[in-house]
Amino acid sequence: MDPVLEVRNLRVEYRSDGRTVVGADRVSFAIGPGEIFGLAGESGCGKSTIANAVMRLLKPPAQITAGDIRFQGRDVLALAGGELRAFRWRQIAMVFQSAMNSLNPVLTIGEQIGDIFTTHEKLSRRAARDRAGELLELVGIDPERLKAYPHQLSGGMRQRVVIAMAVALHPRLLIMDEPTTALDVVVQQEIMAQIRDLQRELGFSILFITHDMSLMVELSQRIGVMYGGRIVELAAADDLFAKPLHPYSEALMNAFPPLTGPRRELTGLFDAPRTTDSCGFHIRCPPDRSDCSMNIPDLREVAPGRWVARSTEGDLR
Amino acid sequence: MRLILRNLGFYLVAFWASITLNFLLPRFMPGDPVSRMFAQSQGAMQPEQIAQMSKLFGLDDRPLWEQYVTYVKSVFTGDLGISISRFPTPVTEVIGAQIGWTLLLGTTALIIAALLGNLLGIVAASRRGGLLDSAFPPLLIFVGSFPYFWLAMGALYLFGVSLGWFPLRHAYDAGLTPGLNAEFLANAGTHLVLPALTIVAVTVGSWMLGMRNSMIATAAEDYITMAEAKGLSPSRIMFRYAARNALLPSVTNIGMGLGFVVGGALLTEVVFAYPGIGFQLLAAVQRLDYPLMQGIFLTITAAVLLANFLIDIVYVRLDPRVRVR
């Protein structure tokens, strides 16, 4: 089946006077219809940069300098003006990193859900309000709360409202950028269950972004592990968890230490950001990558559907 | 609603405190204002004037609390005493004759400056780095940092004397009787232009900068990105989402400005010989007209309190977050 979203060789740079930071480089992946694709990696690795690039939300100094993004065959990077506005939310909707802050504090929930319908479906305010009420019911919130302001809702409820907004127009793809980061574990589970239910019901694809590997394995079918702006491993979730091939994937999975067993030092993204002439990895290169000090190599397919960024084939474990 | 009532209580207490201070201050002043005034007027004072002042400044021999009760009573019955410099006009009449012009000038200038400044700020922030954004703030700050007196004189000379577009002084031409007819209103309007515009010129810059900065801070909020992701139109995002929130600090400033309008724009009134409270206050100070000073202070305090109370009400409507406290 044709992929819903196809990202090829995407490169995003943050350009400022004298220094260019590469936010994402040669990133390629595709998401099929109804598929849940996870993008894992720690803060600063470029996950959100990718998400914002797909939504065309990047603002200067961020710049897409290479690659292309296709949504159901349409060139997303070529969209502009009204076309782009019509594309947003109807085709791809997004749940932001901090749902707490993604609601406008001085407008009621009803107004904020409603203006999706007044904008995209040209509904009257009254009709939009009714639709907004139905949406709230969909995520298990009393439609009475349409009149509430964001600060009158709990964190979990606000996140539900944001999710309700995201599915309002039945988009083909939902980008979820760390949707549960600010929530406690119990609420987090409720929200994840909600997302799964909605996905089953409405059949959209999900680009799921998180640094929480345990959450990711629960939800995703395929996973891309990002490091320093590049995807270092791309594999089916089960395969990746059974046997991570890239040292960084392994490090990321080990970042959630087991409750028992010997103490281990955590490894993560190192202090140097990735710039045009440094991959940021060489400062603490794992032993088996001694041959490349400057660049993360391109992905190579080591098994069907299994890609890893390693320069030598020799020591795959 | 409960919040408004609670605020009202607070403002009543503040008003009471200001009345009390107003009552106490002249009585705690070192020396005896009456004899100082008497000395200065070099015997030109009428005996009634002296008696009136003695009563006002507590030189009658009653105990302090009795005087206080009398004072509060007279304030609430609208009796602020009799002006010394304009004897025997009551203070309330002196203030009443001036306050209309002060309010007209002050509010006109404030509203124009706030509207224009905020609008410029919104547009500048939305086209950040554009012509408006890079040229206007420095220009307006440049204009605003001129000594007002100098700027007003310059405007008066250029537009009043050289070009002759606007009248030079007063609120309306001598010979016209104030009334609600077209002729008078047009005349008062042309007299208003220069004083109001000079005030706008020096204040609009800070409104613009404040709004611009506030807008830029708001534009970085996640809900603005969310609104953009929702596919809303730029103008809707700019006004409904960004400006709506960025305006809140401006509303506070408008309220404060509104309160101080009553104090009059002293320099403007002096340069353009415009009737007003500021000019009156200056005259009262120069002539040691304590009853008038007291009356004007009380009026200003009351106006500041009233303006703040009104802004509180507006704020509750604009920002739902303050309702819950």
TrEMBL record, chain A:
| Record keyword Transport present | yes
Instruction: Classify the source by domain of life.
Output: Bacteria
Tell me what topology the record assigns in the membrane: Peripheral membrane protein
Concerning InterPro entries, the annotation shows: AAA+_ATPase, ABC_Ni/Peptide_Import, ABC_transporter-like_ATP-bd, ABC_transporter-like_CS, Oligopep_ABC_C, P-loop_NTPase
Which subcellular locations apply to this protein? Cell membrane
Q: Which residues are in the ABC transporter domain?
A: 7-253
Cellular component GO terms, alphabetically?
plasma membrane
- SUPFAM superfamilies given for it? P-loop containing nucleoside triphosphate hydrolases
Q: Which UniProt keywords apply?
A: ATP-binding, Cell membrane, Membrane, Nucleotide-binding, Transport
The principal location of this protein is: membrane
Citing just one GO molecular function, the answer is: ATP binding
Asked if the Swiss-Prot or TrEMBL record annotates the protein with the keyword Nucleotide-binding, the reply is yes
GO biological process terms on file: peptide transport
Query: Which family does the record assign?
Result: Belongs to the ABC transporter superfamily.
Q: Which NCBIfam families match?
A: oligo_HPY (TIGR01727)
> What is the designated name of this protein?
Peptide ABC transporter ATP-binding protein
Please report the organism this UniProt entry assigns to the protein.
Paractinoplanes ferrugineus
Automatic annotation (TrEMBL), chain B:
Cellular component GO terms held in the UniProt record: plasma membrane
Keywords attached to this Swiss-Prot or TrEMBL record, sorted alphabetically, are:
Membrane, Transmembrane, Transmembrane helix, Transport
In terms of InterPro entries, this protein maps to: MetI-like, MetI-like_sf
Q: What membrane topology is annotated for this entry?
A: Multi-pass membrane protein
CDD domains hit by this protein: TM_PBP2 (cd06261)
Q: Could you tell me the Gene Ontology terms of the biological process aspect for this record?
A: transmembrane transport
Specify one Pfam family: BPD_transp_1
Chief localization: membrane
The membrane spanning regions, by residue number, are 7-25, 99-125, 146-168, 188-209, 246-272, 292-316
Q: Is the keyword Transit peptide in the record?
A: no
Q: Does the keyword Transmembrane apply?
A: yes
Residue ranges of every copy of the ABC transmembrane type-1 domain listed in the record: 99-315
Where does the protein end up?
Cell membrane; Membrane
Similarity annotation = Belongs to the binding-protein-dependent transport system permease family.
In Swiss-Prot or TrEMBL terms, this protein is called: Peptide ABC transporter permease
Gene source species: Paractinoplanes ferrugineus
Provide the organism lineage as a comma list. Answer: Bacteria, Bacillati, Actinomycetota, Actinomycetes, Micromonosporales
